[in-house]
Design a protein that fits this description.
The complex is a heterodimer of chains A (114) and B (116).
Chain A (H helix, E strand, L loop, with lengths): L3 E4 L2 E4 L5 E7 L5 E7 L5 E7 L6 E2 L10 E5 L2 E6 L8 E8 L7 E2 L3 E5 L1
Parallel strand pairs in A: 2-11
Antiparallel strand pairs in A: 1-3, 3-8, 4-5, 4-9, 5-6, 7-8, 9-10, 9-11
Chain B lengths: L2 E4 L4 E4 L4 E3 L1 E4 L5 E7 L5 E7 L5 E4 L2 E4 L9 E3 L8 E8 L10 E3 L3 E6 L1
Classes of the chains: A mainly beta (114), B mainly beta (116).
Chain lengths: 114, 116
């Protein structure tokens, strides 16, 4: 398995501002993902964070709104830009330690936008 | 595309009752199947998994069998405890390669509440 930490664990932000969420893994992993869990809902994949190149976004998510970086095999950031109350969600990063392995999740970042 | 359908919740049980949460899926190829659990205020934890047909995943008294013929992966526990109260998510990942590789598709989640 992998030990995953996220910062911040929660935040309350004002409309129109941006927040960067960090995801740190204790070992090198092949794949990293970012998910959103809106209140009372299931998880929706935002994007795959690719090491050293641009992230791959799912339908309905765009780079201008959710820029992602992955400078190495243990770290990634997700920025939620120009926030609105509709962005209030839990944001989770997940990792696949190696090809074919189980996916593990970080503890999540609970974001509230006022 | 891939999809996962879970039984509607919430589910409310008394301690020591039998639990079943139904999960069916649609996928290309032969996906791997998972149950994740989310305790109040926490992130997702892997509960159990099965990677091929007829495999049975088990953990903490929970079981689920990968049924290819019925495209199902129902979660069961013989005697639930108050501490099992959580949201349970059924999920699959395609092993077919290509752009879907590694991406989890989740069901809508089932809230379980167990009363003493």
């Amino acid at each position: 398995s992998a030990v995953i930490s996220q910062k911040p664990s929660r935040d309350i932000c004002q409309r129109g501002t941006s927040l960067t969420i960090q995801c740190q893994v204790d070992s090198q992993v092949t794949m990293m993902f970012w998910y959103r869990q809106q209140p009372g809902q299931s998880l929706t994949l935002i994007a795959t964070a690719n090491q050293g190149s641009e992230a791959t976004y799912e339908s309905g998510f765009v780079i201008d709104k959710f820029p992602i970086s992955r400078p190495n095999l243990t770290f990634s950031t997700l920025t939620v830009s120009n926030m609105s109350p509709e962005d209030s969600s839990i944001y989770l990063c997940s990792v696949v330690p190696r090809r074919g392995a189980t996916q593990y999740f970080g503890p999540g970042t609970r974001l509230t936008v006022l | 595309g891939n999809s996962v359908t879970q039984m509607e919740g919430p589910v409310t049980l008394s301690e020591e009752a039998f639990l079943t949460i139904n999960c069916t899926y649609t996928a290309t190829g032969y996906p791997s199947l998972f149950w994740y659990v989310q305790y109040p205020g926490e992130g997702l934890q892997l509960l159990l998994k099965a990677t091929k047909a007829d495999d049975k995943g088990s953990n903490k008294g929970f079981e689920a069998t990968y049924r290819k013929e019925t495209t199902s992966f129902h979660l069961e526990k013989g005697s639930v405890q108050v501490s099992d109260s959580a949201v349970y998510f059924c999920a699959l990942v395609s092993n077919a390669g290509g752009t879907s590789y590694g991406k989890l598709t989740f069901g809508q989640g089932t809230i379980l509440t167990v009363h003493p």
